[in-house]
Amino acid sequence: MDKVSDMLDLPDTDTLYAALLARDPAWEGRALVGVTTTGIFCRLTCPARKPLPQNCRWFADADAAQAAGFRPCRRCHPLGATAEGEPLVCDLMARLEARPDHRWSESDLLALRHDPSTVRRAFKRHFGQSFLDMARAARLRGAVASLTKGSTMIEAQLDAGFDSASGFRTAFARLFGHAPHQMRQGGGVLADWIDTPLGGMIAIADDRALHLLEFIDRKALPDGLRRLSAHVGGRVGLGRTAVHDLTESRLFDYFAGRAPLLDVPVVLHGTPFQQQVWRALQQIPAGQTRSYLQLAAGIGRPTATRAVARANATNRIALVVPCHRVIGADGTLTGYAGGLWRKERLIAIERSYA
């Protein structure tokens, strides 16, 4: 008889064992298997030899598996982000990092013997967007750099690998909420790109403080930029300030494990209640988490859990205002606008600070 963990959100053991035999990637991040004969726990997609059903124990997360005395597998690395357990994703991410300016297409995927539909599903599952969308964003990073340095529009377009000016303008506006020529007309509030180990971020700042810090693939980024333009009374321009340099330096130290506190001056654009929630988020130490209920109680509004959740979701200064440290009351990783895979990685990074 299979031993089952006490987690109520796990299905029956026959379903889990079938997924293990099939190495079903749909179960990434949802279940892990502990092997009683080896004392090791694995992802269900692990390429190792499969155990017998009676030697399996099932867990909803790595913490539960370790609490039961199991060690992480060295082949599938179940303590890492779920995307790290899928070879197809790891392969393509490495290729994208090596060739960020390449115009990736489905033909390239076929040449690498990857089925485009499989790739699309895998990246959507882990990152909330397709591989080709991520590749397009990587090319736009070069365009932002060119425009910031004063290049002409056509030079930036070609640097980003776009054949048509209209295609370049459309892709740029989808990211920023404004066409590139409008961004160049901005005033004292400037936008620039910052690279991080978890992807590119747009940082908007003036000479005194940071106004916005978002991962570039966040769907609400264009709307956030439009709202910020209204707050500051004009369009956001392209450029860099000392606050951008400070933010980039603090992020580098944070990801390197040297700075649990992202000490950057910020301007919080929101209602008094939203600002109260965001300031409370900044008080959560790295390596710790809070539930929405705990956060609501902490600001003296224990019945305002839903309002707290909404305020958390509308935070526009990622990482510096650490909304990723809020989880479900049952300990699950609830929604994160930057992607659950990032939330998983950020919490894992911050365990070293605990």
Report how far apart the termini are: 38 Å
Structural class: alpha/beta
* Overall average residue pLDDT: 82
The CATH fourth-level homologous superfamily of the largest domain? Winged helix-like DNA-binding domain superfamily/Winged helix DNA-binding domain
In angstroms, what is the radius of gyration? Answer: 22 Å
| Beta strand % | 5-15%
CATH class of the largest domain: Mainly Alpha
Which architecture of the largest domain per CATH?
Answer: Orthogonal Bundle
Give the biggest sheet: 5 strands, mixed
The spatial strand order of the largest sheet comes to: 1-4-2-3-5
Number of helical stretches of at least 4 residues: 15
The total count of strands amounts to: 11
Protein name: methylated-DNA--[protein]-cysteine S-methyltransferase
Enzyme class: transferase
GO molecular function: DNA-binding transcription factor activity; methylated-DNA-[protein]-cysteine S-methyltransferase activity; sequence-specific DNA binding; zinc ion binding
Domain HTH araC/xylS-type: 116-186
